Amino acid sequence: MQEIKAILRNLDVAPRKARIIADLIRNRPALEVKAELSLRRERAVKPMLKLLDSAIANAKNLGFKPEKLAIKEIRVDGGQILKRWLPRAQGRATPIQKKRSHIFMRLEESAKIKPAKFVFAEKSGKEASKKTAAKPAKPAKKTKAPAETAEKTTGLEEPKDKAGLVRRVIRRKSI
To answer: Between 107 and which of 4, 96, 129, 170 could a Cys-Cys bridge form, CB atoms 3.0 to 4.6 Å apart?
Structure first.
């Protein structure tokens, strides 16, 4: 069986923080992990999601189905440490270590994969092309002339949306 892998090097997140996310997604279906990571807020999530997308794309190029992929191995190793100095009182300096991570991800195709708890629907080529296709211009709606409205305008018009109440309450200047 072919190996599907993707590697991310020199991620500006400490390995200890990236391992927290890696432990959550190990041995789980790839599409389920993709959906779950897109909802999380940690700093290491976005690069890991991009790495997972890369691994899934590699699998598609090799002829695998994304629905049958699982994360077999994910490893977070320490990368090169940037060493900096922070000036302190009385001529002292405090060392600062900016740690980096290398992330290695390996996917496998398995028939034992349970259906994912939740996934995001992929847009097919036809739906995606509909958005980019040029739409014919709609005819302009007729509007009433200003003379036809019998209301007096005071210069302070109320907003027409339902959030207008909040806008009026939080407005800086009083009426």
So the answer is: 4
